[in-house]
Amino acid sequence: MESGSIPLDSLASAFDLQSTLESGQSYLWTREDGATYETDGAHGGDAWYATVADGEVVRVRQTDGELVWEATTDADRLLFDLLRLDDDLAAIRAAANTDALIDDAYDRYWGMRIVSDPFFGCLVSFICSAQMRVERIFAMQESLREAYGERIAFDGRTYHAFPTPDALADATEDELRDLGLGYRAPYVQRTAELVASGELTRDDILGNDYEDARDAMTGFVGVGEKVADCVLLFSLDYLDAVPLDTWIRTAIEDYYPDCARGNYADTSRALREQFGPYAGYTQTYLFHHLRNGGGN
């Protein structure tokens, strides 16, 4: 086992691990005490979180002004990538078109970062997220990992990597339904086939302008515009993506009615103009704020 720490005062801006990993961005990290989303406001905690990325197990917690980690490898660079520790939040906020609501959201959850999850795991988890409570989404991903993911022994425990596209492409629809995926089972299986065969992959998305990338993402089975935006924002570094989920649509109705344009693409474009160049960051802060009772 390797271990280390990252001093928080060495980063360009503040960082908060709990809000980053418990704000609805990622279903690929596990809170090791099993209390994910049980903390009101989800901010400032010191719990351990774990994930498997690039075949490596990483455990991390925030305490006493540093990120402490344990891993199967030297995890400093991996954590910088996965948690976007190089992002300059002060510059991102300064570039935003803020108002009282947005300022409250940034103030309340200052230090929250956008995650940068591995592409395939992010894609499948958001396909599974449709019309589902977060507890069930997490359970689905855990079931997929345990059934089809590589097993990695670490610190006396067995961790499971997210399944490869080949592994899920070879699964049957009935097998995936038995894991609780329901009607999402054929979407996951067919999307895995597309990636495994090379018919549609991450490389076909990257490099496109944002709206073209979103259109390309909808080529995956079970991916509409909202899921496409989630994957673009939380995996592929399109920080201008603004997923229009229920909370953000309510915010449009209550605070930004001029952005309601009758269809997803035009409404998204108007909201990006409203929020500024890092609209995805503002959206994520606003989502977490409203979901936890802000704006009342």
Structure commentary:
- The protein is of the alpha+beta class and 296 residues long.
- The chain is 45% helix and 12% strand.
- It has 15 helices and 7 strands.
- The protein has helices spanning 17-21, 76-82, 89-95, 100-108, 119-127, 134-148, 165-169, 173-178, 185-197, 202-205, 210-217, 225-234, 246-255, 264-275, 279-291; strands spanning 2-7, 30-31, 49-53, 56-63, 66-71, 151-154, 157-160.
- The strands form 2 sheets. The protein has a 5-stranded antiparallel sheet. It has a two-stranded antiparallel sheet with strand order 6-7.
- A hairpin with a 2-residue loop joins strand 6 and strand 7 (157-160).
- The chain starts with a strand and ends in a 5-residue tail after the last helix.
TL;DR of this structure?
By secondary structure, this protein is an alpha+beta fold. Helix content is 45%, strand content 12%.
Major β-sheet, in short?
A: 5 strands, antiparallel
Mean pLDDT: 95
Shape: globular
Strand order of the largest sheet: 1-5-4-3-2
Helix content: 40-55%
> How would you classify the quaternary structure?
single chain
Strand content: 5-15%
The gyration radius over C-alpha positions equals 19 Å
Low-pLDDT stretches: none
Number of alpha- plus pi-helical segments: 15
Going by helix content, strand content and strand pairing, the class is alpha+beta
> Strand-and-helix sequence, N→C?
EHEEEEHHHHHEEHHHHHHHHH
Number of strands: 7
